[in-house]
Amino acid sequence: MKKRFKFIPVLAVAIMTVLLIAGCSNSGSQGGLSIGIVLPTKDEPRWVQDEARFNAALEDSEYTTEILFSQGSSAKEKENVETLISKGIDVLIIAPQDGPAAGSAVEAAKEEGITVISYDRLITDTEAVDYYVTFDSIAVGKEQGQYLIDNTEGTGVPLYLYAGASSDNNAFLFFEGAWSVLQPKIADGTFVIANSSEAEALKDKAELSRDEMGKILGQITTNWDPNEAKNKAQTNLTAASAELKGDVAILAPNDGTARSISDVFGSDGDVTSYKITGQDSEKASIQYIIDGKQSMTVFKDVRTLVTDAMNMAVTVLDGNTPETTGSYNNGSIDVPAKQTEVIVVDKENVKEKLIDSGYYEASEFTGLE
């Protein structure tokens, strides 16, 4: 909470609370905004879902909020933060478009005494981050890699690697998790890396440095862009020899890129079959899983993540210290973190995990058994 509120007398606090409740609306108001939220883009279903969950989370709250989107621009992200600061927020929840670039934006917030909560993606290389609410990103990558191992037969299986944006710290964590389980199977010949000379050169190394991972990501990044993923997959298959086709395994970083990559591999007559990963449990990918065009997704229940973030924000607004379950080093400090578990979803358990749990309605899909 801002420093200017720390020593207000009890009576004044009571009066201010009554006024706040009387004027409360989820759209916020000039000078009376409690929580500012900045999300990366409206162009990905994942973040639109988050927006809806955030709005729902505060329906019965006395606190006000406003949600702004950066639309893939670090400059717009900084502008959004400045806008929210000018509206008097006490807590900033931000999923950075670019981890390092977001540093200057949140530093401006910290200078105003605002509590900064990094949401889903970690803001790096700055001390101006108070808390981090996240899914266990390394666990996501491990689940993706392990799924490919568990569902692949034989040896010499071509392995196509794809990753998120090099500007996103989570992309490194996802890849780190996947590499930790895939590397032994690459080293023993179960998998043959098909599309990264950098990964091939490091195939005998169990733990990679940030720089080494960066070199691999430089070759396999999709920038979280389905069109870029499609183009990269087409380029990879055009260059691939017959030995690198047939039955293949594909590490795709998220659902949006997985669908694009799946479409490319599925249309190549020399690809006999493929197993492909994903994450986020986007509605379109659930249909792909039902139809057999995507193998799995890692379900990250946004309802839980949003609840964790809003509970943390309200705890701060109430003058208390939020509960955390670990910490992440962002290059400058160890940021206290609240982690949320992840769940593997495939065709076998999709109904149980996503329909029976109330996350989606069965009527939203076709062919669901």
UniProtKB/TrEMBL annotation:
Task: Give the matching PROSITE patterns.
Answer: PROKAR_LIPOPROTEIN
Keywords attached to this entry:
Signal
The record's section on InterPro entries has: Bact_Solute-Bind_Prot2, Peripla_BP_I, SBP_2_dom
Extent of the signal sequence: 1-22
Its main subcellular localisation, reduced to a broad class, is other
* Annotated source species: Aquibacillus salsiterrae
Q: Which GO terms describe its cellular component?
A: outer membrane-bounded periplasmic space
Q: What is this protein called?
A: Sugar-binding protein
**Which intervals hold domain Periplasmic binding protein?**
35-320
Localization of this protein: Cell envelope
Molecular function GO labels: carbohydrate binding
Keyword Hydrolase in annotation: no
